[in-house]
Each structure stands twice: as C-alpha cells, then as structure tokens.
Design brief:
mainly beta; SCF_F-box_component; about 650 residues; F-box-like_dom_sf; 11 helices; disordered N terminus; F-box domain-containing protein
Length: about 650
Amino acid sequence: MAESNVGAQDLPDEVLTEILARLPAKSAGRFRCVSRAWSDMLSSDYFVDLHMRRANRPDRPKLLLTAIGSSYDGYLYSWQLGGEVDKLMPDEFGGEVTVPLTKPCRGLILVRVRTDDGDGGYYVFNPSTGAGDDDPNHDISPARAEVFVLDNTSGYWRPSAGNPPLCSVKKKDPAVFLNGYMHFLCVDGGIATFNISDETFGSLLLLPPGFEGVASVLTELDGCLCLCNGEPDSEDPIHVCVLRDYKEARWEKLCCIDRTAWPESERTLLDSLWIAPIGIYDSGCRQKIMFGTGEPRAHGGVTIEDMICSSPTTEAWFDILKWLPTRSVVEMRLVCREWRAISMTDSFIDSHVIHANLKRSPRIKLIVDPRVGTYMDLEEWTDEYCGLSLRNNLVYSQPCHGLNVGSCQFWDFVCNPAISYCKPIEFDDNDGTFFAGRIGLGYNSEICKHVMVHITYKTKNLETRHYELQCKMKYVDDGYEWDPINPPPRPVAGIPPNFVNGKIYWMVDPNIGPVSAGCEVIAFNVETEEFEVLQGPPCTYGSGHMAILELQGTVCISYSDQNRNTVDLWMMKDDGTWLMEYHIVLDKLTEEAAPLAVDPTDGRILLNTGWSLGYYDPRTAAFETIYTMAFPNIKFCPIVCHESLLYPLN
C-alpha cells in the first residue's frame, strides 16, 4: 500500500488532470473532498473547460428525458446511446410537466415548468450535479428586454444595454446560443440575434432557400446554427439546413428526409406536434442525425443510404436504376415508394450521373428558351420553335457532372437540360455588355459540390492594352453571396470556359495585357481556388474561331478556319505539350464552327457547323449530317447534356 501511495504521488499533475477530466461530473465533484489542492484544481476554470471537452464524447450523446402524462413519476431521466434509461434525479421543480428547452451551455440547461393553474416558469440547472436556480424566471413583457444575471449569490433581472428589435419572437421557442449570440426564431421565419458581450440586437438577413415564411424549428447541430422544417404529423419531407459560414451567412442543406419511404411502423413514431434534430453522432463510417419529438422518445435517423446497404434487394435495385436514362428513372419513381426514395438520395443521384453516361452516345437538346428551362430533344425539334432567345447572344458550357452553365445578354444561368431545369443568375455588376467567357462551372470531387466562377472586366482599353478584372466564386447549391477571389493573372477571352479534371480552363485574350509570343490558357483549380497560366498549342490567333473544351477527358482547343473550311483539334498531353489530334476538312463552315463531343461508342466527333449538326468519322473522313437548319439566318443552339437528376437551389 505504501508503494502504491508513493506511485500516485509521483504521477505528473497534467496526467492526473487528464484522468479526472474524463470522469462523470458527479465523480469529479466528489474528488474535491480529497484535499484543498484537489478542490482548487477541480474548481478552476481551466479544469471545468477541460472536463466539458473530455467527458462529453461526440459519438455517445447523453440525453435528458422527462416523462409526461400518466408516465410521469416525479423523476428526470438520462439516456446515452447504446445504454439503458436511468433515473437521474427527482423532479423538484414543483410543476406538473418539466420540459428541457435548450442544449447544455457550459453544462447548464434551461427548462420550462408548467403547473395546473397555468403558472410555473423557467429554471436554470446543471443536470449532472443537480445544482441550479431555485427561483422561477417567469415570462417577461415583450415590450422590453431584460437580462437575468447568474452569480454566486443570487440571480437578478436588469435592463439590457440595447433596445429589442421590432419583431415578434416565438414565445415558447427557446433561444439558441452560438458564437457569442443568442438566436431567437421570429414568427415571420426570420432570426433575431442578441450579442451577449455588448447586449445589442441584430438579425440574420439571409435564410436558406425554401425557409422564408414557413414554420421552422431553430436549434444547434454539429456546432452550427440549424433550421429544420417539415410538418411532423404529415408525410412532407423534412429539410435540415446548417449555417456553415456564420460571417458570410452561408447555409448548407444537410439532408432532405423522405418519410414516405419508411415502413408504417417507423412513420407512426413521428406522429407528434414537434420534431427537430438534436445531435449528430458517428456510427461506424457514417454520421447519423438524432431527432427529438414531442413524444417521450428519441430517434436515430435511419437514412435511405443505410437501408440500401442493409437490404440486398434494395441495393440490387439501386444498381439497376443507376444505369437507366433520366426519363426512365423519373417514370420508375411512380412504381413504388421504395424506388422513389432510392432515386431521390444524394448517393443515387451522384452515382446515376456517372453510370448512366458511360458508353452512351452524346445526348443533344436544342434550347428553345433557357429562361424557363425549355429544351427539346433533337428528334422532337422543328424549326417553328426558333424563338426570340435564339436570335440573341447565347453561349453555354459542356456538361459538368450533370449541370451546364450559360450566358445571355443580361443574365447567366445554371441548368440541367435532361430534366428541363434552369436557374437564372443575375449580377449587380452586369452592364449589359455581352461577354461569353464570364462564367465557368467546375466540380470539386473532394466535397462533391459544383463551383461557379464569375469574371468581369472593370476596365478594358484596346489601345493602351490596360485592363482590370474582378472575380468571384460560389458553390451552386449555396444560393447566396459570391465570395471575391483574386482574379486570373491574364485577361480572359470572350470564349466560354470548360471544366476538365479538376480545373476550369479559359483562353487568354491576346489583344490586351502583356504581349505573348504564343497562345496561352488560364486554369482555375477548384480545390485550391487558384489560377495559373499555361502555354497553349502552337497556333496563332487569326480570323478563325477558337474554342476550349473537354473531349475524352482531355483539355482540347479547336481552331476553325472558315476560309479553308477546316477544323484543327489540339489536345493537351499529361506533360503540358500539345498535339494536333485531328485536321478536319469539310465542304462548308460558318464562323463559329466547333466540336461538341466525342461519341464513346465509335470515336466519331460531333460537330456544330453553325447551320447543321453532324458526326465526323476520323477513320474515313466522312461527315454524316444529323440535322440541318431550315433558316440559315437564325442561330440555333444545340447543347450536350448528361443523363442527370441534379436539381440544385431548390
């Protein structure tokens, strides 16, 4: 025993502190009785902060439960994932119902107590130790704002430093504390804020798309402010968004839960007047969301992805449906709820856009009106559909993981022609000058997000070659402000950019900026968010038309010469050198002739000659026309699209 005591005394203080910090709160509290030194150590602010970090495992959240109605027995309960429900402490708040309102804030929880006569109030206490404020804090008048101060002697109310905003907050919904602010959900769906440092009020002006003016629940999830909407007692989807970037007000759609795919027994568990996410925890290689409801139960979110992995039949249907064309998948959604749920998951949509386009001939649609998402398959097109929009300037990108972007005179758009989806994008800095290279689209495979980059000229002088660019970027599904980034180091030409293997490529404009002996290319890395200048192919700018595009997974530049009726196609090799892969000679070309795609089934090149569409066979040098415009004076707009179910910003 003596040797054991000596060993304990030799244990370094920092190691001892780490051990005690991992104990339950009650156990750590008891050790304060060991000695004055231990009491001082375990009562210090440093240890209290360390204990909150070490003793609360994110993968095993602990819940405070209260029974209601006939189940009420005068106790508060606790439950930890994977364990049993335990009695925590007697309910000594003196009411008929005690309802937890907030997540712990440095260990303290706010509860509301209701009595038969409608009285009661609010209490602050520590469920780990049972300590708290014994005096109820009753509702205060909405005409003023007061602050309740908790100190070591007694609590008291005092007026706040700032005046409250002119808004009506939801009386029964508690505020959410995060990043030094209290957040109050307003009746109109907005969020009022209160800075606890200077006691001033403010508001969050931007809400996630679809959350304006709808009934929502405000909470904290994964260290972020969280909004959740969806009627608990209906079969409507449940939408969950989190505020990932507080300063820039950037919301991220975390999930959309389709309850119609659940078994009836699972759906009846959510027949409640209230439902909200209360925590995220790791379950193996996946993260799960835990939801709380108005009923005395909590639910670990069983996602459709989990159902797919756990059911061989469902997994088999997943693998079958992902190879089908978009139109077929949409029709299959009507077969049963299970197929509908499978086809609407993010994992299926991401897998479908890859598999449904493998070894498939390019799908061509003609643009009728991009403003309302009107596209027609080539087989259904007749020249009577040539609308006013086709007489104006209109350019577009090749498909990028299921989406395209394009530009018109006064606005840009992101679209998925396969499902007739189009979202206009308007800019404050658009002066009405058409610039074909102003918007680029890429895909960040690390975070599975589409990236848009917008470039405009603030100044451009062809005589002095002086210019000034401004550049900004955003993720397609964010729906809010663009983030300014450093502009490219060269001026970009009025040629639509395209995305290849993690980078968006633009042609450099040779008419302004520094004089270059050869053709140059600008590349934007969507992961590092940086530009670089690359040497282009050994061709010179002339009277012909140049285009930059992706063919067979490679960066390509085409140069069409109307005087010679030729199209030269250059491909960039892995070492950065360029090789003229094809020299195409045709009977007739228009000014803006360019390749659109390569058919993976036979290697033929799909060409837009400006007045016709056709396939050029490099082996035979033959050109097969598949469509000819009846009115050569009207520009028609073919767009290559992917089989895709992507439907962002909605």
